[in-house]
Amino acid sequence: MELVVAYLHDRALRRERRYRDPLDPINISDENLIRYYRFPQCEILRLCEELDPFLRRRTRRSHAVPIHTQVLVALRFYASGTFQHVLGDTVGLTQASVSRIIRDVTQILTERARFEIKMPTGDSGYPLEAFLMTPFRNPSTPGEVRYNNSHTKTRVVVEQTFGVLKSRFRCLHRSGGSLQYDPSKCAKIVNACFLLHNYCLMRRVPLPHDIVDDDGEIDNPAEAVAGTGQAVRANV
Predict the structure, then answer these.
(1) How far apart are alpha carbons 101 and 72 in whole angstroms?
(2) pLDDT along the chain (236 residues), means of 10
(3) Are the CB atoms for 38 and 169 separated by under 8 Å?
């Protein structure tokens, strides 16, 4: 309740500013919020509260876009993969403003993800790292065979998770146009979506109804990296 009161107070103050904010999570049902932003009202307000100190540091302009609008714009982008200029047109913002918002929110979430996200397994399309275990290409011992069998079972769960993740955050899915950015920015957006997906699971946010089938995954074997990754895998 305190979050709602704080939001309404902030909205009342910002009415005097030049930017007229068309996004109003208070007057939208949770069903539609989950459909378009992937979170219900209480979780959106919670996220706004958590990101508020960091976003304010990045937007010290006298007519800055409200924090909740920045969060909603970023969530809408993650949920749909909509082009920035189209998203800007729907909320009365320029493409440049939408780009800055997505960049800032993504950067903050990526920084948080560094401490909360772990990548335990990968298929042969990934390089072997100390933090990322891949299967043996040519297992030659009973232990390596058992490892590959266990790894396969784990990968089934991972693949299912990827399917749910790409359905929840359509910017990662081919139906959303995929990510048309440089690799560094793509990696940050993926990490942000991973973090938000974990939040959905921890807070039991239901999946949206418009789930799509997974679009598959290309398996391009990567060369194993000698060193700590091999040592960790051998120990496993």
Answers:
(1) 10
(2) 52 48 72 92 94 80 77 93 84 89 95 81 78 86 91 84 88 76 91 94 84 48 54 67
(3) yes
